[in-house]
Amino acid sequence: MYPLQAISSEHRRRTSRVSNAFGASAVLTMPACIVIAAGVVLPLAYMLILSVQAPDPGEVELTANFTAANYLKFFTSPFYWSVLLKTIWVASVTTALCAFLGLTLAVSIWLTSSRWRGLCIIAVISPLLVSIVTRAFGWMVVLGDNGLINSLLIHLGIFAAPRHMMFTNFAIIVGLVHVFLPLMTLPILTSLDRVDRNIPEAASSLGAGALTIGVKILLPLVIPGLVSGITMVFSLTMSSYILPALMGGADSGMITTLIYQQFVVTFNWQFGATLVAILLATSLGIVSLLIFETSRRTRKWMVRR
Amino acid sequence: MIAAVQRQAFWIWSAALYVFIMMPLACVILASFNYESIQSVPPAQWSLRWYGEALRNPNFTRGALTSLLVATVATIIATPIGVLGAFGLWKSKSRYKAALDAFFALPIIVPGLVTGISLLIVLTAADQATGNIKLICGHVLIVLPYVIRTTLASLTQFNPSHWEAAETLGATPPQILWKIVLPIIRPGIVAGMIFGFILSFDDVNISLFLVDSRTVTLPISIMSYLQFSFDPSVAAISTILIGITFVSTLLLERLFGLKRIFAGG
Q1: What's B185-243 look like in SS3?
Q2: Is A158 in a helix, a strand, or coil?
Q3: Among candidates A217, A167, A222, which has minimal Cα distance to A193?
Q4: ipTM of the assembly?
Q5: Is the confidence at residue B259, as pLDDT, over 90?
Q6: What is the pLDDT of residues B173-229, one digit of tens each?
Q7: Which of A131, A170, A269, B212 fits B202 for a cystine, CB–CB 3.0-4.6 Å?
Q8: Distance CA B221, CA B225 (A)
Q9: Are B63 and A165 in contact (CB under 8 A)?
Q10: Nearest CA of chain A to the CA of B53: how many Å?
Q11: Considering CB atoms only, which of A35, A141, A190 is closest to B27?
Q12: CB-CB neighbors (< 8 A) of B246 in chain A
């Protein structure tokens, strides 16, 4: 039994510490909040306002005259529609390939013994730290007319002449899959690590084959990781510029190439801002639709009966 | 029997995936030792001459100096801000804690292209035209979220009884933070700094819109060199970069664990 006074002083000390900690934490987080607000949020807002201003080459000041002309220009032109649709197509194919490859890669890491596991993870992650320019250049060396694949296939007598592989959609997708595969593999691996290893063993002892265990037991359990990987890869692919520009040539037909031209070549920054806004809205829309659909479909698994 | 075949097929498939991951980097390294001035893998004649060419190329050396300067200054600015932010988030008992956590991840979530363009617009509107300053503004945003992330990950593993023990012995909260918490979480902070530094040094997405003709970073000078020339000096400079990256990757893995930086788990 504590004396009453001790309890009340203990209580006072605790509440004052809580309020101190709250005040102190607000002060501590302030600089980071200011940097992110000034560096990301405000510029983004400024750009969105710029997208509803009349096009005026080289001018970035905001005026009080708002107009939807830039958006009308985009949505009334079949050319811009086709660029947007091609970007969505490339991003979808890349994401689907990454999901398939990432699932198998994550399972293979999950299955390896702990001695090799660290090495596998380094092998998967280390390309992420190499500049995207270096990786694009690497694919140029592999896929180029005098590159590894062509010289190998000619040497083996499969091709008579070099097959043109660079500056095609194939090259863009191969490069993008290579760049974003680690970002798909890691969240899936994190989900897999939470799976109790007795579960697949139980299934196996009940007679399930490897494929059944993979599709019917592991796949549903890694859905959260898979969805977060898909979200990340899809939105990053939609907004990737360097790889399509280097591997697809000047007219890769992706929306980001068009955006770069508006800002660096034609200086129509208002229309460029409109293109960025449409890009953001499209990837945000598709990603939230995906998250909504998966949570709707998997909701019944969450309910205990 | 069928199970064994399935297992074999799965391991062959996984090995092929590792080959796919490593192939472009391995080819860059092979191509850098070529003697001739066209790219061919494997080289017909081996030499180190393109390393000399690459290190004598003023575009590359100037680019490397700019990148070093920008990445260093950005890391120096972002680290204290990030560590303080992580401390604040860790001590916070506010119900907006989760929202604040998401807010701190914003620079990672918003694509680099969008960050670069919107910064370009705002900095142009504010007449802030110096290349280095523009680049540093962008690169602080690259480093900051990773410093916050790794520091916070170290803090969540900090044993709260250390805090209580120090408090019982009469230490004030700033003393506890400085003398007890900081030394324990130092590996996490250093890992975030190294990681942020590498990402800043390698960045193209944000920098592309913030460089000007006088201030160009190394990855961007490599990129523009690639657009008109295709000799192995790019392979040589890239191999040097891959080497530096590989050493830092091993360092990060020893110091902190790579998977924790990306997946946080």
Answers
A1: HHHHHHHHHHHHHHHHHHCCCCHHHCCCCCCCCHHHHHHHHHHHCCCCHHHHHHHHHHH
A2: coil
A3: A222
A4: 0.87
A5: no
A6: 888 888 888 888 998 899 899 999 999 999 999 999 998 888 899 999 999 888 877
A7: A131
A8: 6
A9: no
A10: 18
A11: A141
A12: 126
CB–CB of B209/B119 below 8 Å?
yes
Structure tokens at A182: 């680690």
Q: Where are the alpha helices (DSSP H) in chain A?
A: 4-36, 42-50, 69-75, 78-111, 114-129, 132-143, 148-155, 169-193, 198-205, 210-212, 219-221, 223-238, 242-248, 255-264, 269-302
Q: Are B121 and A269 in contact (CB under 8 A)?
A: yes
CA–CA separation, B38 and B230 (whole Å): 7
Cβ atoms within 10 Å of A54's Cβ, excluding its own: 12
Low-confidence ranges of chain A (pLDDT < 50): 1-8, 11-12, 15-16, 18-19, 305
Backbone angles phi, psi at B120, to 5 degrees: -55, -45
Contact B141, B107 (CB under 8 A): yes
- The model carries a pTM of 0.87
**Do the Cβ atoms of B243 and A169 come closer than 8 Å?**
no
What residues in A contact B107, CB-CB < 8 Å?
A: 36, 39-40
Amino acid at A25: S
Is A126:B245 a contact under the CB 8 Å cutoff? Answer: yes
**Closest-CA distance of chain A to residue B197, Å:** 10
Which neighbouring-strand residues pair with B46?
B34
The whole-angstrom separation of Cα B77 and Cα B147 is 11
Tokens of A163: 């097959």
- Cis peptide before B42, with omega less than 30 degrees from 0? yes
Q: What is the pLDDT of residues A185-243, one digit of tens each?
A: 999 998 998 888 888 888 888 888 777 888 888 888 899 899 999 999 999 999 999 89
- B163-170 contact pairs (CB < 8 A, 24+): none
Chain mean pLDDT for chain B: 88
